Each structure stands twice: as structure tokens, then as C-alpha cells.
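User: Before I run my own analysis I want an independent prediction to cross-check against. Here's the chain; please return only the C-alpha cells and, at the end, one sentence I can use as a sanity check.
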Amino acid sequence: MYQPPSSPKETGDPHLLRKSRAYKHAFEAYMRTGEPIAMQEVKARAESETPSTTRYIWRTQGDGKVRASHRANDGKIFARDDPPPTGHPGEDYGCRCWAEAYEPDVQEFARQTLVSAVNDAKPQWDTVRFLFHFRFGGGAAVTLRETGNLQGIIDYYSKTLGAHEDVNGQIADAAREAEPGRFEYRFDSSYDFGPYIFGFGHGVVAGIFRGTSIQSDNALKISGSVSYVYSDTFTDPRSIRKEEIGTSDPMFITEENIGTEYWGTYFTILDEWETSYEAVVHEDRSKSRYVK
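Assistant: C-alpha cells:
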């Protein structure tokens, strides 16, 4: 005769387990036929009663006792909020069928598309022109678009440095940590833009994502916009003098390092742009390629 296990260690909380639909149907079968209750199987089915996805696969016992209407459902996918005519597995009296969580493969992607106008001025400034402004510009700030370099910096940042991929992963992780719905994520980092224009050194790109995430099965659908801000202070080209004597401040110029200074006045280089953001990523970051 079947003796239910007395140790909670074997089945988890026995009181909760015996309130489950899976245990109820197993007990009904035991009372009708004397079929032993397989507690490990009951426990697994009881755990599956808590919906982890919005859809499930109908599964039957696969024997002669399965009702014809339930046999017809076997292997089919149903939505938890739209049951078939038979009702969900286990709802009919004596039904031994169960719902297997349906977790389809997530076709991941994340993309950003430039949506703000660039309007770069002509002609484009090169290192010599930046040095000229450093020496004779009186410290007046300039924007990247005024120098004809906004599109170039955006392309270098997003493509050459691959920073968009980094940001995409950061936003995906932020969505995993946030509650579904609207959320924001801020970021900033320093990058070497010297290979783009010799006179540049490290510039900072900061940004903020504003948008929403929606949970669907085992995926997150994320959409919104990313606002970027570029900032840099132009001192000596590539900070050569700073590397030599530890500072770029013209006050500390000497006869020995005058050749690396060109004198001049510091000036800031600023600009901003915006992208749209769309992504579908695994909710489970261990399965995703979009992580920070």
C-alpha cells in the first residue's frame, strides 16, 4: 500500500504539495485504481502549475486511459489566457494531463538607428585646424558639427570602437534588473579618439536610455531612445606634453618641452546626438549575447 513520505525534505513543503492540482489528481487515481502516487513526478507537475511562460505544451500520460479530446491536444501549444475547449490540463475531473512550459528559441537582436540631424559644416577640421583654434581661438568652445566631425565621431564610436554593442548589452541588463514597463539607464565612459584625429585624445561619451521593456515568454522586448553627449577638452595634441611632464597646463611650459605645446588656450569640444533603440533579448542573461 502507498505510504506518503513523511519527510518534507523528500517533497518540499508537504502541505503545499498536497494542495496542488497534481497531487489531487494523483490521489484520485490512487483511490480509484490503487495506482501508487509517484511523488517526484507529482512534485515536478505541481511546480509546473506556477506559470513561467504565457504558453504551454499539452502533455498526456500516453496510455489508454487518456480521453480522446485530450489525446487530440497532446503536443499542441496553447495560451494560458486562451484555453482550448477542453479547458487547461488537469482541470477536468480525473485528468492526468499536464502543461509543459513552452520556451521557444529567442531570435535575439539589438540595434540603434541615428534619428537626429547631423548637419556637419564644411570644410572638415583636421589636426592643424584644431591646433590653429587652440592657439588663436581664445578658448572658445566648439561643437563637433561646427568642425565637420560629428558624423565621423559617431561612426568611429559606434563602428570602429564597437561601443554601440557595449551599450546594447548594458541596456539589456538594465531591463533585466528593472520591473517590466518604463525604465531609464545612464552610462558614460572614456574612449581614445586619437586614431580618428591625431589632435584628439580621450573623450567622454555619456548617455541615457529612456524606454520600455515587455516580458514575453522567456524574452524581453525593449524599445526606446538613447541620447548621447560627447565632451572633451583640447589641450596639447594627443596630450603629448602631459605624458612627458605630467600636465597639459601651459603654465608649466619650459624650454625643454616648448616644442610639444604650441602655446594656446584650452577649449572644450561638445556635441550630442540621438538614436532609436530596439531589441529582443533572452530574459535569462546566461543565455544571451547581450550583456554588459
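Sanity check: The radius of gyration is 32 Å.
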